[in-house]
Design a protein that fits this description.
single chain, 306 residues, alpha+beta, Helix Hairpins, HSP40/DNAj peptide-binding domain, 3 domains, three-stranded mixed β-sheet, 8 helices, 11 strands, elongated
Length: 306
């Protein structure tokens, strides 16, 4: 297995912070996503390496193992366990650290496909054919970032994503948050020697394509109303994500007045029938380019008020 420098893949140095890793991953994942580069084998391979690099470096424990063991970080626990077993048994000496013909996993000699382990790992654990037991290793987890519009996640729907060259159809629950991550079991890398597959972690980036702003399950919207309606009262048709509603504007409504429409906000994640609220802020438009007659009327009003 060729060594892959995950730091180089993400374009960061070895002292990068967790925030720098996250930013670098998101930038590269968007740039090299297969959906934006269809039928491009090189991009798909790079995209997979970007996900692998993020999966390792974003996890402090995995990053520590990677810094110490390189490509063999996935087997670090077995390596340390075997080392401890050797120390406990009092064995020492050069060559194979587990003794002649020894095997940290018990039984006979360690065997395995040369393609599954790097030269370093094989030299530490031995790679002798002959009826020995093979250690089972769980497959690597994958991480991927997917983009959706806010209007899309207002309702639960099914969507197909292309992840590492494979089409995966999942149900996207209504109300999912920006940055939220969900796990899809068994869709990571295949396990070794009969071990279980890894998992796939999808991180959602929600782009706001609406006129609302979202805070949790609540929505916010600025609504302009003309001066005459603000003073005298009236009705205004308001857009919501579930359709239009008719609002009554009270006479003498002040600029900046806030009203709440209960249950007209965003759906609560995995709570069917539950919604946040919609908060409206009225902004009174002052008329411009008045005619002489309009100015005269406003002057009369001013005198009347004084």
């Amino acid at each position: 297995m060729d060594y892959i420098d995950y730091y180089k893949v993400l374009g960061i140095n070895k002292n990068a912070t967790a925030d720098e890793i996250k930013k670098a991953y998101r930038k590269l994942a968007r740039q090299h996503h297969p959906d934006l580069n269809p039928n491009n084998a090189e991009t798909e391979k790079l995209f997979q390496q970007i996900n692998e690099a993020n999966e390792v470096l974003s996890d402090p424990e995995k990053r520590k193992k990677y810094d110490q063991y390189g490509n063999d970080w996935k087997h670090a626990d077995q390596f340390e366990e075997a080392r401890q077993q050797q120390q406990a048994s009092g064995r020492s000496g050069g060559g194979n650290p587990f003794g002649a013909g020894g095997n940290p996993f018990g039984g006979g000699s360690f065997t395995g496909d040369e393609g599954d382990f790097s030269d370093f790992f094989s030299s530490m654990f031995g790679n002798r054919g002959g009826g020995g037991r093979q250690a089972k290793f769980r497959g690597q987890d994958f991480r991927a970032s997917v983009q959706l519009n806010l209007s899309e996640v207002y309702e639960t729907h099914k969507k197909t994503f292309t992840i590492n060259g494979k089409n995966i159809r999942i149900t996207v629950p209504a109300g999912i948050e920006n940055g939220q991550e969900i796990k899809i079991a068994g869709y990571g890398a295949p396990g070794s020697n009969g071990g279980p597959n890894g998992d796939l972690y999808l991180s959602f980036e929600i782009k706001n394509d609406t006129s609302f702003s979202r805070k949790g399950n609540d929505l916010y919207k600025d609504v302009p109303i003309n001066l005459y309606k603000a003073v005298l009262g009236g009705e205004e048709m308001i857009d919501t994500l579930s359709g239009k509603v008719k609002m009554k504007i009270a006479p003498e409504t002040q600029n900046g007045t806030k009203v709440r429409l209960k249950g007209k906000g965003f759906p609560v994640y995995k709570k069917e029938g539950s919604f946040g609220d919609l908060y409206l802020t009225y902004h009174v438009d002052i008329p411009t380019q008045l005619t002489p007659k309009e100015k005269e009327l406003f002057e009369q009003l001013a005198k009347e008020r004084s």
